[in-house]
Design a protein that fits this description.
The protein is α/β, with parallel strands linked by helices. It contains 11 helices and 7 strands.
């Protein structure tokens, strides 16, 4: 317990420093409880599988921008029946929300999961980090969203990846989400700048207080200490927490 307390104590204190990025240190702890939190918030079962740092192909949601670069969504999750998907952004400072981010999240939602997967295939074909993208598609396959050709697994075990791009085209979309939810997990659900109301209508917010209520349902020492820090982080003045 001592080291756990020191760990969270440091995050509690260091979050006030100018260059300390709390989100990058705390995101793994949020991931432990996120499916359960989504389940409580939306009132239906959610799969335990999370896809972190999900790349959204920019050209897919902005056709006038010809690039294979991507925006990253902190987590993508799926309902247990595969009929719902969640695009989740974590913010440890309410003031760090931006209308521009709301916009691309809503653009991704409107594009639909099949288009987002097609965009991922385009990035997979263009990137030099093909083994990492193979693992990403493996996680999506585990979630029941895609089917990977068996021959691709054979090729990925070789040092020479010749022929891989043709196999990437054969990745099959299996998902059927009829609805995609855009979600922010953030301290208090507010932000300093004037919001774009049309975008806010499409975005759900889960506050740290709501998140902590789920975490408190666990009796282990990590959960207990994390819940304590969540309540501390929720009391931070917007803009004072990087």
């Amino acid at each position: 317990m001592k080291n756990i307390d020191i760990l969270f104590g440091r995050m509690d204190a260091w979050r006030h420093l100018p260059n300390y990025q709390l989100e990058r240190r705390a995101d793994i702890f949020f991931s432990l409880y996120l499916p359960e939190v989504l389940e409580k918030h939306f009132s239906f079962p959610v799969k335990d599988i999370l896809v972190p740092e999900f790349p959204v192909h920019i050209n897919t949601i902005y056709p006038d921008k010809p690039t294979d670069k991507s925006y990253k969504i902190d987590y993508v999750a799926f309902s247990a029946d595969g009929d719902q998907a969640f695009l989740v952004e974590l913010k440890t400072d309410d003031a760090s929300r931006r209308c521009s981010q709301d916009k691309y999240l809503c653009k991704a939602k409107d594009a639909g999961l099949e288009s987002l997967i097609d965009g991922l295939k385009k990035i997979f074909m263009a990137t030099a980090a093909k083994r990492k993208y193979f693992h990403l598609f493996g996680l999506l396959e585990k979630a029941g969203m895609v089917s990977i050709p068996d021959q691709m697994r054979v090729v990925m075990n070789r040092s020479n990846l010749q022929g891989l791009n043709e196999l990437i085209r054969e990745i099959t979309y299996l998902g059927s989400p009829s609805e995609i939810h855009t979600v922010y997990v953030q301290p208090n659900g507010c932000r300093e700048h004037k919001p774009d109301l049309n975008q806010d209508d499409k975005v759900s917010v889960i506050t740290f207080k709501d998140f902590a209520e789920v975490v408190k349902g666990h009796t282990d020492v990590v959960s207990h200490r994390f819940a304590q820090s969540l309540e501390t982080w929720a009391s931070v003045i917007p803009g004072n927490n990087a």
